[in-house]
Design brief:
heterodimer, A: 307 residues, Beta-Lactamase, 6-stranded antiparallel sheet, globular, B: 184 residues, alpha/beta, Rossmann fold, Arc Repressor Mutant, subunit A, 7 helices, 8% strand
């Protein structure tokens, strides 16, 4: 993938639901890392996905060698330097863990952040973890601020419980880092509520530069007012994509198709050709990662990343 | 020119006398490498009977890069002839080595080669068109099903999408199919 996210994986509980096993993944050309990953299992509290399960929140690991990361040698070989785990819970019970693995690259600007209302604050969110690649100044600023409910990407997602997509952050109202984001080359962002447990809320934000988009298209699907069908609330891509827009006019029935299965099961999915390298310059879409947003056991939305 | 008997110079002399530029060699394990290096306009064999290995090499070479091949042989076994034709030999002549006829044999072989190549290209194009047709029909069916389009609307949508992207209808159909695969 020619983006700062190089690998995307889905880890799912095994039959006994005591360990996590490989579900599916997008590895592009990293075939050896893929082979090393497919054989892995993670117990509760083991490795990056197991720790995210145990802690009940998203995790960002930047130093594999000094962590409990189990695939350090293979990751080093593949040039991967950072891992982000996004657990998907329904209440207390884990459904899956989505893992993103990144590589430091001066040419690809972007950031993935974890925001939380630590100390159970009802008022504000702060960055508790994040991967910023080469955007050191932006990282410093982001770690120093807090956002109120309804403010900025993370605050809006926290308030609504829904994913929020902003296609031009520099012009977004209430995004207090707008100028800094512009300076860092960041143009778009999406925030996704994750693991809403009793004590804390967690919001993940994905920020990317126009030249190096996170995905060729990002969509937000939500159940309609009757809760009978999924409709596409929003779709975004750097360049207009009429074909994707056409498919976004369709509705999705529970259990039918990839998104329908996400709705039925609450499990994230990866579809399409898993081995194709992601090239943002190509128009055609070859794979999709769809992540459910679940609140109190009900599907609030599905975020799909199309590569 | 591949000669099985290194002492035989009849064909070599006849070719040179006929104004051809000729490299004489014998068949061996490096046959394909030799062809790759010198990229001849034509390959001519003079032998008793082509071995299975030789015919297999020839067939592999023809799939890689087709070239006119003439084979002078003494073996008139129909199976051998059939295998030689399968290896895309343009002319298989049994006991037909005659210096006086060499020029016309080469001309006929060249003409047959060009004709066969034109037919092969036309076949490939027809197959590609048929494949495109199938893809377009499948893409139309998807658009009809997901968008409630009529067949006409589906075709015009496909055509517009293709024109907007400056790609062929077949390519656009592939995009529709892969998009639909993602949501399957």
């Amino acid at each position: 993938m020619k983006t700062f996210i190089k690998v995307t994986e889905i880890w799912v509980p095994n039959k006994q639901r005591t360990d996590l096993e490989f579900g599916s993944g997008l590895y592009g050309g990293l075939v050896e890392f893929k082979a090393a990953s497919e054989q892995q299992q993670f117990a509760y509290n083991e490795g990056l996905p197991g720790k995210a399960w145990a802690e009940g929140r998203p995790l960002v690991w930047k130093e594999f060698a000094q962590s409990y990361f189990k695939r350090t040698a293979a990751a080093k070989e593949a040039g991967l330097t950072c891992g982000i785990a996004m657990p998907i819970f329904s209440g207390d019970f884990l459904l899956a863990v989505v893992v993103f693995l990144c590589a430091d690259d001066e040419h690809h600007a972007g950031a993935i952040e974890v925001w939380s209302n630590q100390d159970c604050s009802e008022q504000s969110l702060t960055v508790i973890d994040g991967y910023y690649g080469s955007l050191h100044h932006f990282e410093q600023i982001s770690r120093d601020i807090s956002v109120a409910k309804d403010q900025g990407l993370a605050g809006l997602a926290w308030a609504s419980g829904l994913p929020v997509l902003v296609d031009d952050i520099s012009k977004a109202d209430g995004f207090i880092r707008a100028d800094d984001a512009k300076q860092a080359g960041i143009t778009m962002g999406i925030s996704i509520p994750v693991s809403d447990n009793l004590s804390s809320s967690y919001i993940m934000t994905f920020l990317s530069a126009k030249a190096t988009p996170l995905a060729k298209r990002i969509q937000i699907w939500v159940p309609d007012s009757q809760g009978e069908q999924l409709i596409c609330l929003e779709g975004y891509s750097k360049n207009p994509n009429e074909l994707a827009q056409l498919f976004e006019t369709t509705t999705v029935t529970k259990g039918v198709g990839a998104l329908g299965r996400v709705w039925l099961t609450g499990m994230p999915v990866i579809t399409g050709d898993h081995d194709v390298d992601y090239n943002p310059e190509l128009i055609s879409l070859s794979s999709m990662l769809a992540i459910p947003v679940i609140e109190q056991g009900r599907l609030k939305a599905i975020v799909s990343f199309l590569f | 020119m591949i000669e099985s008997d290194p002492t035989c110079v009849f064909l070599e002399h006849a070719l040179i006398a006929g104004g051809f530029k000729c490299l004489k060699s014998h068949y061996g394990p490096d046959f394909l490498e030799l062809i790759k290096q010198i990229t001849p306009d034509m390959v001519m064999f003079n032998l008793q009977s082509p071995s299975k290995k030789l015919l297999a090499d020839l067939q592999a070479q023809q799939q890689l890069s087709a070239m006119p091949v003439i084979m002078f042989a003494t073996d008139d076994n129909s199976d051998t002839i059939h295998q030689a034709i399968k290896a895309e030999v343009c002319a298989y002549l049994v006991n037909g080595l005659d210096a006086g006829r060499l020029d016309s044999i080469v001309s006929v072989a060249m003409a047959r080669f060009k004709h066969t190549q034109a037919l092969k290209q036309a076949l490939e194009e027809a197959c590609a068109k048929l494949e495109d047709r199938k893809l377009i029909d499948r893409a139309k069916a998807i658009l009809i099903k997901t968008q409630n389009f009529t067949e006409d609307e589906a075709y015009h949508t496909l055509r517009k999408l293709a024109m907007d992207r400056h790609i062929s209808l077949g390519e656009m159909a592939k995009n529709v199919l892969s998009m639909s695969e993602l949501f399957k």
